[in-house]
Amino acid sequence: MSTDPRAGEAGTQVEPEVLEELLSMRASIDNIDATLVYLLAERFKATQRVGVLKAKHQLPAADPAREKNQISRLKRLAHEAQLDPEFAEKFLNFIIEEVIRHHEAISASSGATGQPGPARAGSSDDPTAR
Ligand SMILES: C=C(O[C@@H]1C=C(C(=O)O)C=C[C@H]1O)C(=O)O
């Protein structure tokens, strides 16, 4: 029924009014997804700075006490927002795992100098490369 590429599979399967409603909701989803990408990019910029600070002061990459506090706070917020708290926990753990991986890489590259090393310059683990 529609050749609009935004309609996807549904374009050939539903009435024009239904399609219009679907496309309007998808436009919101696109905006939300773009916001998520920007938010995640900002969060990773901040955590990269934490990683550099930790490497400089020989602090461990992971901080389980901080993670525990964050997860209970986020689960509480998720519940209030009618988002599945278990999903919120999984999502946050997924992100934290990646952050810790970055911190370990920063620490490994900084060696004795406490500075991100030249071997990592330009890599995704080097926040100064951005
Ligand atoms: C960013 C930090 O490093 C790690 C990553 C965290 C996160 O992504 O929120 C939280 C705790 C740490 O395990 C930190 O210590 O603040």
From TrEMBL:
<dbReference type="GO" id="GO:0004106">
    <property type="term" value="F:chorismate mutase activity"/>
</dbReference>
<protein>
    <submittedName>
        <fullName>Chorismate mutase</fullName>
    </submittedName>
</protein>
<dbReference type="GO" id="GO:0046417">
    <property type="term" value="P:chorismate metabolic process"/>
</dbReference>
<dbReference type="GO" id="GO:0009697">
    <property type="term" value="P:salicylic acid biosynthetic process"/>
</dbReference>
<dbReference type="InterPro" id="IPR051331">
    <property type="entry name" value="Chorismate_mutase-related"/>
</dbReference>
<feature type="domain" description="Chorismate mutase">
    <location>
        <begin position="16"/>
        <end position="107"/>
    </location>
</feature>
<feature type="region of interest" description="Disordered">
    <location>
        <begin position="107"/>
        <end position="130"/>
    </location>
</feature>
<dbReference type="InterPro" id="IPR002701">
    <property type="entry name" value="CM_II_prokaryot"/>
</dbReference>
<dbReference type="InterPro" id="IPR036979">
    <property type="entry name" value="CM_dom_sf"/>
</dbReference>
<dbReference type="Pfam" id="PF01817">
    <property type="entry name" value="CM_2"/>
</dbReference>
<dbReference type="InterPro" id="IPR036263">
    <property type="entry name" value="Chorismate_II_sf"/>
</dbReference>
<dbReference type="InterPro" id="IPR010951">
    <property type="entry name" value="CM_bact"/>
</dbReference>
<keyword id="KW-0413">Isomerase</keyword>
